[in-house]
Amino acid sequence: MAKAKKHFLIRSKIWIEDEQGEVVFGSGRYLILETVDRTRSLQAAAKELKMSYRALWGRIKASEQRLGHALVMRDGKGSKLTPFAENLLVQYRKVQENIRDESDEIYNDLISEYIEQ
């Protein structure tokens, strides 16, 4: 009886650092901006992510300083992402998807055929 082939996936974490090794952007900051975008509120985003407002705002400000671009702006009584931040989310998502897809394809082509259940 032939054994079924196991299927494995490659997983990795990708983030951007500056020359000093400080985090500029990664999955945590992506989640923060995505939540701010959806809730239109820093306070609501902090609550949903179970973070203090100060911690959430500190991460946003650190990224803004390191990137040299604003990420969040006031919008009436709430907040919204800047066009730069919206583009950053799109581009980061593309990088993540490309790395995942390429890694899985390479793994499946080169390694998985040798793994048996």
SSE blueprint and pairings:
Blueprint: E1 16-17, E2 23-25, H1 27-39, H2 42-48, H3 53-67, E3 72-75, E4 78-81, H4 83-110
Antiparallel strand pairs: 1-2, 3-4
Helix pairs in contact: 1-2, 2-3
Low-confidence stretches: none
Q: Could you tell me the strand content as a percent range?
A: 5-15%
Q: Percent of residues in helical segments?
A: 40-55%
Query: What is the CATH domain class?
Result: Mainly Alpha
Give the terminus-to-terminus CA distance.
12 Å
The total number of structural domains is 1
Helix run count: 4
Identify the CATH homologous superfamily: Winged helix-like DNA-binding domain superfamily/Winged helix DNA-binding domain
Integer average pLDDT? 88
Radius of gyration based on Cα positions? 19 Å
Structural class: mainly alpha
- The main sheet orders its strands as 1-2
Number of strands: 4
